[in-house]
Amino acid sequence: MIELGLSRISRLLQQTPLTWKAIHIAGTNGKGSISAYLSHLLTSGGVRCGRFTSPHLIDRWDCITIGERVVQESLFRQIEAKIKLRDQTLGIGASEFELLTATAFEIFNHERVEIGVVEVGMGGRLDATNILSDVLVSVITKIGLDHQSLLGDTLEEISREKAGILKGGVPCVVDGTNLPAVLTTLEERIKELHVNAVYTRPDAPNEHSPSLDQLFRQLDVQPHQRANMCCAISALKLALHQVRPGLGVDTLIPRLSQVQWPGRLQSIVLKPLVARTEPILLDGAHNSQSAEVLGQYIEGKLRAKGKPVTWVIAASRGKDIAGLFHPIIKAGDNVATTSFGPVDGMPWVKANDAQELALSVQIIPGIEDVESFEDDILAAINWACAKANGNPLVIAGSLYLVSDVLRHLREAQEQSGNTTGAQ
């Protein structure tokens, strides 16, 4: 169960004031990528940096990094046990995410982090991470419709919730590619707080940095990546101006090309999990906005040779299935539907029924074969590999499906002694 509010997290952390400064990031899409960019660049610049994102990818503790390295499991469990004992002793009744947030923040204290890059879990105003007080810069990424039952039914309502992380006296960065309804709502709150705001323009990277403009010219950077990079660089400038004014941002920008964010347009070889040797595309697109980005990438990269795409899909319960899959699955495609397993530390997350998913995509005009595999992800992937026969194969619809696939791949690599599956 998701319980928004700041009273429980306040009590969990009242005994241990946070010793680090934060960059706080809210939005519907792009939070993880921007967090990864910022963490990598800060670490490259010699700043001791912690990063807290959600959800975790494979292991529950891999959502916390120190200096770009996943926190040691032993330290995570040690601090987590301390937080859980405090929760029980004080009778707080904190939620799973609140316990995880407090654990991450305490780990940052323990590891003497200078700057913590913190991604909002859900919304912003009442999210547990909004307990942060010593914030260098707030970032609002691309906002779309998601989690409407908790955040509101309109873009304006959701934007107001996301804008809840903005604080008086703290500068902010806003993704300027947001829809007008979003920008207008955010601007109202920014004016109320008299906040210094930067609205990014990925179509004019030279305004952010000549080095960023040069990087875009050199690399094949997708439009959404351009937007995220502009947000990250703008936030980095504002943060370093306050804590490391002598550290030049332009010298760090070339390192953006080294950043990898697993599960987002990730090309990966699944051998030895399956026999297929050609790369597949793994993407955690789980709402209409991120699916649109995925669809654009597939149209430009995978369908260019006129070959159909074979899909393995799953989705969380409550998602808009038609809005998620119908625009990107085309006539001639094959689809395997499945469901991910229980999510460690997030018992409220449930998978959509695979058969129900199959019935939804079967109505797409011209669709080829659609098969349901319930929770047998490996069977779904093997069927898809056979159907694709070397042609494009995409696994998408949920970050939790991505997590299960990567976990299966890691286990297969450990059993075979092969650790070179990812490309």
Automatic annotation (TrEMBL):
Keywords associated with the record: ATP-binding, Ligase, Magnesium, Metal-binding, Nucleotide-binding, One-carbon metabolism
Catalyzed reactions per annotation: 7,8-dihydropteroate + L-glutamate + ATP = 7,8-dihydrofolate + ADP + phosphate + H(+)
PROSITE patterns cross-referenced by the UniProt entry: FOLYLPOLYGLU_SYNT_1, FOLYLPOLYGLU_SYNT_2
Group of enzyme by EC: ligase
EC number(s) given by UniProt: 6.3.2.12
Residues making up the signal peptide according to the UniProt record: none
Protein's GO biological process: one-carbon metabolic process
GO cellular component: cytosol; mitochondrion
The organism's place on the tree of life at top rank: Eukaryota
Pathway: Cofactor biosynthesis; tetrahydrofolylpolyglutamate biosynthesis
Any GO molecular function: dihydrofolate synthase activity
Family from the record: Belongs to the folylpolyglutamate synthase family.
Name of this chain's protein: Dihydrofolate synthetase
Origin species: Aspergillus leporis
